[in-house]
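Dear support,

I submitted the protein below through the web form. The confirmation email said the job was done, but the results page showed an empty box. After a refresh the structure appeared. I'm attaching both so you can tell me whether what I see now is the final result or a partial one.
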Amino acid sequence: MALLYALASYPEIQAKAQAEIDSVIGSDRLSVIQDREEMPAILHDPEVFRKPFDFIPERYLGKDGKLDPSVPDPEIAAFGHGVANGNTTRGPCDSICPGRHFSKDGQFLMVSSLLATCTLTAAKDEQGKVIPMKLEMTDPILK
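What the results page shows now:
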């Protein structure tokens, strides 16, 4: 749901992502896993990024427009870290999810296919003005 909210709330970012997909894979097919290396990711860590909750996917790109390998990998934040990830510093989790690759692949294919085939927009009122949206996480696990 957060992805749909972000895409509808930030149409200029959605358009950039759609343009990137078009430039990487064109418009005659959907993404495959091998296309992922050419596209950015998202992470929310206030110790790593200024304005971590702002939707700024460009934070993962270098000056050349390619993924910047010096930027922390969002997979570590999403799926755990510790000795199992080659990190010698013990973190809140000492292992990493064994299903992370399957999950990451599925998420990439879903998001890139959504962006390649749809444009999400916020609802408008009778006067054509955008109705402000609010994302509320009601499940305590997601807060």
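Response: this is the final, complete result; the empty box was a page-load delay. The mean pLDDT is 79.
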